[in-house]
Amino acid sequence: MEIAVLTANSQLGRALVPELERIPGWRVRPLLRRDLDITDVTPIARLFESPPAVLINTAFWATEDPEPALRVNALGPRLLAERCAAAGTLLVQVSTDYVFDGEADRPYRETDPTAPRSVYGISKLAGEHLVRAAAPDHLIVRVSGLYGPGGSRAKGGTNFVSDMIGMARAGKAIRVVTDQLHSPTYAPDAATTIRQLISAGVRGTVHVSNTGACSKYDFAARSFELAGLAPDLHAITLADLPPLPPRPRYTVLAHDALHAAGLPSPRPWQDALADYVRWLGENGET
Ligand SMILES: NC(=O)c1ccc[n+]([C@@H]2O[C@H](COP(=O)([O-])OP(=O)(O)OC[C@H]3O[C@@H](n4cnc5c(N)ncnc54)[C@H](OP(=O)(O)O)[C@@H]3O)[C@@H](O)[C@H]2O)c1
Asked: Is the pTM value of this prediction over 0.85?
């Protein structure tokens, strides 16, 4: 079975490629943006001259500028979905907790109403809807607070944890919000669960995050503790930040769809974070 991973150098793609390559009988086709721009029909048509059985789309554009956001995060997945539907390819579209408004007081289920507030969230939700409409054979995986080796290319090769540890090592004062709660997702753990979902033939929309929830402040504080750092850390609230772009206050994800498929939740966020901080120390990424 051939699985195309777009892009193989994204934070999640870097974890997916080795995770999928370990499975006997699975062949991974790693793709970069320079091989396939998802907003351009020509390279997409070229990919489907020899269609993969599965195409995982991690590509996205993190912006509050509506035009590129909608082009990359909505039009791109639609173009992929149309081709996947015609070729009988399963499209795995990676999405985000930012499709929710953040006003809930319990973890969001896959079936809960969406109401994104940011341009980025609106564009990712549009991508979800367009994939559902164009490709009946789809798997939409929503992750939250993604971090892992290599960092996010959209964030210049960093993520929240590597940023925090980098700032602490540089002796900077650090201000982090106490009233924004989420379920952080370690990319290698998400890759394992995506591999399990594909193996199990799951379809539809599935939340994938590490188990548990924390505020951004708690996440930063635990990162410093694990790294043996004691920075000048200050607790602030969302009200201390500029109002734009809107940040959902609460985006903890429930794992109903995973459990309905008989799959386990990824491990607790504290265990995943410990692995990543160890990895950062060994690889000098901060
Ligand atoms: N990072 C987070 O905190 C977070 C949180 C929740 C959900 N997510 C979702 O998780 C997924 C993966 O995030 P990530 O952090 O792993 O990504 P990432 O490391 O920031 O990488 C994004 C990738 O998208 C590629 N790309 C951008 N525009 C493209 C286009 N027009 N055609 C083809 N490729 C294009 C980039 O290529 P170049 O680098 O070559 O430009 C890059 O390889 C995304 O769908 C995102 O919405 C992420």
From this structure: yes
